Amino acid sequence: MRVISYNLRKHQASGELVDLARDFEIDALCLQECDTSDLPDTVGPLHLADATRGNRLGLAIYYRQDRFTAHGTRTFALKKSLHDMVLAPAHERLIGTRVRDNETDHELVIASFHAAPLTATNSLRRNQIHAAHAELLGMGTGLMTLMVGDFNYPFFTKSLTEHVKNSGYELSLSDRRTYTRYKVFKGHFDFATSLGLNIEKVETLPRGASDHLPILVSAEYGQESTPTQETPSS
After folding, report:
1. Are strands 2-7 and 28-35 parallel, antiparallel or unpaired?
2. What is the C-alpha to C-alpha distance for residues 85 and 190, in angstroms, rounded to an integer?
3. Could you tell me the maximum CA-CA distance found in the chain, to the nearest angstrom?
4. Which segments of the chain have a pLDDT < 50?
5. Helix (H) or strand (E) run with residue 4 in it
6. What's residue 229's pLDDT?
7. CA angle, corner 72, sides to 55 and 5, nearest 5?
8. I need a surface site. Which of 54, 110, 145, 178 has the fewest CB within 10 A?
9. Residue 41: helix, strand or coil by DSSP?
10. What values do phi and psi take at 150, rounded to 5?
11. In what order do the strands lie in the sheet with 68-76?
12. How far is residue 26's CA from residue 40's CA, in Å, rounded to a whole number?
C-alpha cells in the first residue's frame, strides 16, 4: 500500500496532485490545508472519499477505487489551541476513511491529521495525537490504521515516539526533512503513525509549491492481521 501525505500550503500546491498520484502509483492521498470548496471528485486514478466541512482550509482523503471500497468517512474536532480559537478556528483536525481491500478483504482506516501550529505547545499536540488515535479506534475494533499528516512537531521527536508507542501505535519519520522554509524550524513535520501495519519506508518527495514536502508511505499488512468480519460502520 502506497500513501502520500501533503500539506498544500493554503491550497497553493493543488495543481501538483494529479502528477503525484500517477507518477508514484499511490493507493491513497491525504491532504492538509486544502481548499475543500475547490476539490475535484477525482485526482488522476483516485476518488475523493470526503473532506472536512468546518473550515475552508481543511483535510481530505482520496483513494483508488479499484484497490479499495470505502465504508464511511468521519471527521473529528480535537482540542483547540489559542491560535485556533482567536485567529483562525480549525474545527476539524482529523478525517478518517474506513476501507476494505478488494483483493485481500482486509479492512483498515486511512486518516489525514493536522496538529495545532507551532504557536501551541508540544503538550497540546501530544493531546491531539492521542485523541486522534482514540477516535480512529472508534471507527472499528481491531482495525489496522494509518494516520499521516502534518504533526507540527519538529523537536523532541524521540519523546513523541515513546508517547505514541505507549498508546499502541508506531511512529515513522521520513528519510529526509519535510520542512525547510525557516532556518529555525527545519525538520520533520510530516509523519506517519500506524497500528497493525508494517511500515517499509517513508520517503520525502521533491519540493513543490508548498512549504512542506510531500511524504510517500509504503506499508504492508502485519503478519498477525487477518481480514475482519465485523459489519462496516456508516
Report:
1. parallel
2. 23
3. 50
4. 85-86, 226, 228-234
5. strand 2-7
6. 42
7. 55
8. 54
9. coil
10. -95, 105
11. 68-76, 94-101, 107-114, 144-150, 190-195, 170-172
12. 17
Position 141 scores a pLDDT of: 86
Cell of 37: 470548496
Which among 149, 137, 128 is positioned nearest to 58, based on CA atoms? 149
Q: How far apart, in whole angstroms, are the C-alpha atoms of residue 66 and residue 47? A: 10
Residues 151, 182: Cα–Cα separation, whole Å: 17
Q: In this predicted structure, what is the pLDDT of residue 88?
A: 57
**DSSP assignment of 60-89:** EEEEETTTEEEEEEEEE--PPPHHHHHTS-
Listing DSSP states for 97-165 in one string gives EEEEETTT--EEEEEEEE---TTS-HHHHHHHHHHHHHHHHTTSTT-EEEEEEE----S-HHHHHHHHH
All three cell numbers of 187, joined, read 525538520
Q: Alpha-carbon torsion 45, 14, 215, 98, what sign?
A: negative
Distance CA 82, CA 90 (A): 11
Interval 64-94: pLDDT, tens? 999 999 999 999 988 665 555 445 556 789 9
Residue 96 β-bridge partners: 74, 111
Sign of CA dihedral 17, 216, 109, 56: negative
